[in-house]
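G., the chain you wanted modeled:
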Amino acid sequence: MLLPRYRIVALFGAPQAPELGALGQGTPQQDAARLERIAAGYRAGGRPVLPALWLIASISSKEPEADGLYRTVQPAATIRLYLQEARRRRMLLILDLQPGRAGVLAEVRRLEPFLKEPDVGLALDPEWALAADETAADRPGALDTALVDRVAVELARIVRENRLPQKLLAVHSFSPDLLTGDTRLRSRSGVALVIDANAIGPLEEKRTVYRAVGQARPGLFRGLKLFFEEDPALLTPAQILALEPPPDVVVYE
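Predicted structure as tokens:
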């Protein structure tokens, strides 16, 4: 059981460019060592800490690319490198989807060989989800809650068929408007569903977004993202743990 047993602390990004986040700015070994130092700050939070390497597996692009889908696929060899390092250090690997025009379920199925591994989870980024007639200039996108629930069902199937431990399914959100539709989101059997609040700014701004997206989806686990470059001052673990309720997942980009 991942949640609520652990507090997950993650490093987010991809090696293709520094603008994608902190993960990938060093080697997988260097990034994992950096994450261990960050995660150590949460040991006083009343729950065991589980670090995670959070790798963008579908990277949004401004151009349509050869397939017209406005996303670049992370090479499987790169994913394997990060999985190897995560496993060596007993961390999780979270695969993040910025789907562009690619179908979200198709992207999930493309990653199924990795999702069959016991220590690999999944994240969805509605901001970078585009309809068939949209371009990157039309973002932010959105995801229908019925589609998010279908992804949760698909992950639950993978867990059940492969007799796996609980998997993380995170959905980034800086506004309740990024998730449309009336389907009630909930954690499925073997899947812990997290709404990860993304807000660049000081503590009060982060607290406002954290409350808004959490109150819009009651009963789910909560996450919070921090930004090394964009935030005016990086919040301390003590400030984060003082939030009510404290986040189950903390992501550093």
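The mean pLDDT is 95.

Shout if anything looks off.
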